[in-house]
User: Fold this.
Amino acid sequence: MSECAHLRIGKEFLASVSWPSSFRRKDHDRCYCHRCYPANLADTLTVAGYTYVIPRGWTRFAVAVDESFFNHHNVWDTWLNCYHGTSIDSAKSCVEHRQLLLPDDVTMHGKKIGIREDHIPEERFVFTTPSISYAALDCYAYTHSFRSPYDLKLYSIKVVLQCKQKADSIIVQPETVCATKQGRRLCPHIPNEELEWKTKHRSSVMIYGLLLEIKQNHASDDSNSPQYQKLNISVPPASNVVAPEPSITEEITNTIPKSESLPLPSSYRKPMSKTRIALLVVLIISTFLPMAALTIGQIYKSECPIQPWIPRWVTVFGSVGLSASCLMFVILFINFKWHPEKEIGKYVSGCILCLLLFFFLAWLIAGSVWIFSVKPKIQFVQTNATNYCQETLYKFAFGLTLAQYSLIGVLMCCGGIVALIGCLC
Ligand SMILES: [Zn+2]
Ligand SMILES: [Zn+2]
Assistant:
């Protein structure tokens, strides 16, 4: 018996965000991926006269409910099923508060709930929807990127809360993302006019599950890409409506034996990925070359009368190279320590890398002029003559320029610049 990979990755993700284990109900977990919930099963279910959409492609990590509350109000049988798209941090806060708070409410940590910027001001309601595709829209559900510590692959994960809601508490209204104006139908099962539910009754919404939509990130190993889940369904011919299938990214098909997929202890640290190890090796090597350049440039700084800029060129190359390596070490370290979601470190390192590339290119051109122009008349013997240059210094500088040109050649040949930037981002 093997466990679906979606469940395994979801558990790893929850461990990485310290999801409160006291609220977990592992026996009620359920996966709705195409393997666990076959195509022939129902797409929608109707409870108390309201239809809701089965969360195909999503995986539920059940949240423990208050049994006495559920029994007293007969919640399982009479309340409606709905979804609330959010981020993992907000979801955690909702579960810890045991409810979705209304704007202007104050959390138990004393923080006032604001209205999200992209939401309509003056609307102090809790919003839910019977449609999983509506809840999963980017303006509601945040896309988290997560690297699995087990297989080191990068996944995009969306978060939606699965709730039960008291039927007479809701006000049904149309979608509020202007899809109807643009002629788009957002959900293949529920019309745009009935997509949004709102209520002011705080305790009429009960969370019973955290739904995660887990997709492996194939395109590039970094994107936090918001273009997933862009539904583009035209309004009238309802028969042509296509379900929001994850056609952009492939479904995850690998499965891991149950014994290996135990939830990770909270002290678990993510191992370094192969690209990061390779980068570290490159950085270590690239520290020695500038060190040598700095040393040689300093030792022979006044022993090249034919072109005094040669030792200076070598020295500057060494010091800039060395500080660049140190900086990259720091950035790599920060990137490694931080959660992979925090993209800022990558942007900063990308910018610095671009600047450095430009600098080294310009510096290489300047150096080539100084070094190659004196080649025909240089001699390494008479130290007093004006055309003298210290042999080691000159040959080192000469070799360094040649090495850089060949590096550029190699990088251009294999499109390596792209790969190099790709490694960091
Ligand atoms: Zn599954
Ligand atoms: Zn999310």
Summary: The radius of gyration is 30 Å. Residues 220-270 have pLDDT under 50 and may be disordered.
